[in-house]
Structure formats: structure tokens, C-alpha cells
Amino acid sequence: MRCILLWREAPIHKRLANILEHEELSEDIKENLKTLRNALTETQEALQKAHKDLEEDGDVKELINRVYEKPGTDMGDFWASFLEMTNPLVQCLDACHARNSTECLLSTYNMLPALMAYDNHDYGRWLPDYWAMLSSLSDDKMAFFNIHFTQY
């Protein structure tokens, strides 16, 4: 997992650096990002609110669209497709980090096609069962999951 995150971070940082070279993020966006970076000291409610605020922010949506635009070169297009493929995996990791079970379930479901295609004998084989089990948890069991099975 860490290897995928590292491979993913380099092209995203490069794209963001190019985009933000002459622009600056709003104070609201900076504050929400700061909250998400402090997952060990922030409350679950604060983490979920920051995540929701960023998810609904029009400027963030525009920035994300710009990061994922195909640059029109073979290597650039390859890395843009790699970012798209690894998105659900990273979303799942972020959801676990932020203790957001709804996002965790959604991203886990979104991982199914790629894992079925590339890793059917391991993750692709067992992930549908895992997703079905998580989807059927009661609210109190999901709350327990949020507290005790998160990744820091």
C-alpha cells in the first residue's frame, strides 16, 4: 500500500505544484486540510466535517479536475490513468484514517473492478465478501468499526 501511495504522490505533487505555482488555496480549504492532517488529535466529527466541506467545495472540485486532466503526452497520459486506477484505494485509506465508514464502504466497492481484473486470486476474490459483510453491519457495529479498525 505504501508503495502505491508513494508512486501516486509524486505525479500528484508535480501536477499540483504546476497548477498552484501562480494560485493560492483559500483559507477555508487550508483550514480543512490542516484538520485532516491532525487525525490523531481531532474528533471524528471534526474530521468528517472537514472531509465533507472539502468534498463539496467548488474550488476543490475544479482543482481535482485540473489535476486529472490528460496532459496529452504518452507518459503524462499513462500517469493520469494510473492516478485514476489508484483513486479508490487511496480513498479507502483516507476514509479509514478519517474514521469515515461511509466513504470506506464506497471506496471499497469502487475497488472491486480493478482488483477483479488484476488480482482475482487474492483481494479480488475476497473483497466482495468483505464489502458485503461491512455493508450489513448494524449502526452500533459500524461505530465500533470506526473507532477500532482505523488506520493511523
% residues in beta strands: under 5%
The number of distinct structural domains comes to 1
Give the topology string: H per helix, E per strand.
HHHHHHHH
* Tally of alpha and pi helices: 8
- Low-pLDDT stretches are none
Number of strands: 0
Shape: flat
The end-to-end distance, rounded to whole angstroms, is: 13 Å
Indicate the multimeric state: single chain
Classification by helices and strands: mainly alpha
Give the overall pLDDT as a whole number: 81
In angstroms, what is the radius of gyration?
17 Å
The share of residues in helices is over 70%
Could you give a short account of the major beta sheet? Answer: none
Structure explained in plain terms:
The protein has 152 residues and is an all-alpha fold. It has one domain. Helix content is 78%, strand content 0%. The chain contains eight helices and no strands. The longest helix is centred in the middle third of the chain and has 24 residues, at 74-97. The radius of gyration is 17 Å and the shape is flat. The two termini are 13 Å apart. Keywords: Coiled coil.
